[in-house]
Amino acid sequence: MATKNGLGRVPAIPMANRHMSYWDMFATWVGANANNGTWYIGGVIAACGS
User: Can you give the pTM of this predicted structure?
Assistant: First the structure.
């Protein structure tokens, strides 16, 4: 089913065709948690009175 702009759905990739290495997972988790870690470290430093 197409939308107004003429683009349809993004097709799902079958599990057999998905490949993620250790480094892909590592980069994903670091990127996803970078901002959270920054807030945590900033809060710890602020709580220490610096």
Answer: 0.42
Q: Which residues of the chain have pLDDT under 50?
A: none
> What distance in Å separates the CA atoms of residue 26 and residue 23, rounded to the nearest whole number?
5
Distance separating alpha carbons of residues 6 and 19, to the nearest angstrom: 30
Pair 25, 31: CB distance under 8 Å: no
- The whole-angstrom separation of Cα 20 and Cα 13 is 13
d(CA 44, CA 47): 5
Q: How confident is the model at residue 42, as a pLDDT? A: 86
